[in-house]
Amino acid sequence: MALPLPPPGPDHYTARRARWLASTDTLPPPRHVPQPHARLQCLLNHPDPHTDPVWNHGIDKVWNGLAKGNRLKHRLPMDLVIKVIHAAWRRDPETWPEDAVAPDSDESRAITSTSPSSSRLQSPPGLASSLFAP
Q: With a threshold of 0.70, does the pTM exceed it?
């Protein structure tokens, strides 16, 4: 059982955030990663997913669906949603100036990422249509 939280305020926020960021070993690993998620992950692992050659291979369709509030066919992991949003922000010069660099967070944990073995992209057929419900 979890310890009680402090009363609302900065200490309450800090305690809740610490619980949320704490690793939980009780969650079972996902049994199956849907193919559209794997293709999207591959695109988002590219060093520059906001550039036209990568963006136009399917990230744009996912972003447009999310931005319009379309219902997903399958749950999309939050890390993928964040990467899609980040790429969309970087494409918008008013939101993210071209030469701007995000500062490293002093509170982030180490995240390992893999880059695709080839910088050549192949168009993932039906990426957006396989992610969003009709």
A: no
Residue-by-residue DSSP string for the chain: -PPPPPSTTHHHHHHHHHHHHS--S-SPPPS---HHHHHHHHHHTSS-TTSHHHIIIIIHHHHHHHHHTPPBSS---HHHHHHHHHHHHHH-TTTS-TT--PPPPSSPPP------S-S-----TTHHHHHB--
Domain locations along the chain:
34-98+126-134
Nearest 5°: phi and psi at 57?
-95, 10
Provide the token pair at 107. 């509170």
CA–CA distance, 93 with 5 (Å, rounded to integer) = 41
The average pLDDT across 73-99 equals 86
- Alpha-carbon distance 55 to 83, whole Å? 12
pLDDT for res 11: 93
Q: How far apart are CA 100 and CA 7, in angstroms?
A: 38
pLDDT of res. 133: 65
